[in-house]
Fold this protein.
Amino acid sequence: MPSAEQREAARLFQVMQQGGAQAVDAPVLLPSETLLDLYGEDLRARAYVTNDPEQGEMMMRPDFTVPVVQMHMNDGADPARYTYQGQVFRKQDPGALRAREYWQVGLELFDRENPAASEADVYCTVRAALGDLPFTVETGDMGVLLAAVQGLDTSARRCAALTRHVWRPDRFQTLFDRFCGRGDDQVQRTELAELAAEDVPARIQAAGPQIGLRSSAEIAGRVAVLAEDANVAPIPAQQAQMLEDLFNLRDTSVAALARLRQIAQDLPTISPALDRMEARLDALSDAGIDVAQLSFDAGYGRHAMEYYDGFVFGFYAKDRPELPPLSTGGRYDALTRVLGQGREIPAVGAVIRPGVVTLIRGEA
Amino acid sequence: MLKLGVPSKGRLMEKTFEWFGERGVGLRRTGTDREYAGAVDGVGDVGLVLLSAGEIPRELAAGRIHLGVTGTDLVHEKIALWPSKIASLAELGFGHADLIIAVPKCWIDVDTLDDLDAAAAAFRAEHGFRLRIATKYHRLVHGYLRKHGVADYQLVDSQGATEGTVANLTAEAIADITSSGATLEANHLKILQGDLILASQATLFGSRTAPWGDVERGALAALGAEMDMDLSDCIR
């Protein structure tokens, strides 16, 4: 007999299909390579890894999004709306009470025409599927953060370094402090930075034999980067403050947008992202969501999976902070770029955890 | 019978025997020199079990041996939440080894974790895959790099001759234990600056999960009295 969790998964899966989504599936055993390359070691530490004598390292499906996007990029129709249901497997910290295998029901939307409408669509579909459960909502927008970093008065390399670590807040802060000239861990590389470019190859050679794949050209390249970086002026204090205010902004969506528009007067790179945010709020409002009450936390999403790069949201069980989220989702255009090998398509998706739904209802 | 697990061969075994011997407890192998059997002189109800040092943590955690001598590195790497299953009773003062990250000496631009992180980003952009770090200490190394916010690397498994992986093009950097640094030096590698991932040494551990009956408790007390040490942490 199916468990309450399975029955709820089946119900949600049906709701998604009734909404016009095509049912898709993914294997439980996935080749490690793609997943690892996308997510890195943090995922390997969380995924159950096994070995096939012929296929090599395999992972038990930790997530559906990657295989579904892969399938879509290979031979999917355009636009497309998919749903899936199945178990995912994640190692938990020793002693943690969280489930190591649980069901997910997901929705993935690929659409070039109207990103704001797609975002509102996914959000509202999840919200409707959760019905009258007691939940709270959090939203954010990684696109605004990424655009803000791009707008800093600093070198392109420093922007890229910060962008790369947006999802690792501690590391981001260390770098940011250093680029603002206030880090107490200022790395003193003056000697290397002052080395004349023509002397670098000799220095590399003197240091030791050339071993490994990383070539002396790559080493010299980074020495040049260090030299260049030593001359970059610190990020102005006022701008640094502005970025921190932006990252820490928490308000209702409408008020947050107004505040962000003010910031954009000094940081115009965020304006296109704000236009998208505004269009999304309009679409949500048209769908009956009270955006004047919808909470917005600019930093929300920084601790989530690295592939979300725009709108992000999560539904949480009200007064039950010990439970995992009921649902999380967001926009992940960059992931389709990586998996599409040159092609890309705007994508937004969400997962619901039926097990948490049944827990809140008191069925499990 | 209290079961004491000690490394079954090599310097680690000899030094362990010496350490116990200096404290009035005679450990010796019995039978032929190829037979893995041993005995304990001086204290009753203690049996000697000769095991691979790498298996001692697992045996301690499972409670199949009561006491065991092995490296801190192996206990920390192999046993999640180890303090709940295993108690560290005494550091033996030998078998010192530091778990470190090393990169080719010719990488004049990389001296710190910070540099490694930046080099990893550039490497991935250039080569299309993540910078490979060869190790057998996956858990410790991942935890350490995660804590320090290093990205764009991958761990590749290496159960031996890890220092050679860079020259053999199967890794760009390594994470391994080193005592003198001589093998690193010989393989043209240098240690990254900053704190160690782990400073390890041979340690006497006690199992918290083993069946501690009256006989075993008596033997533990007798062993502690003979060696003039408090070994009771594992039965608290």
The mean pLDDT of chain B is 93. DSSP finds seven helices and 13 strands in chain B.
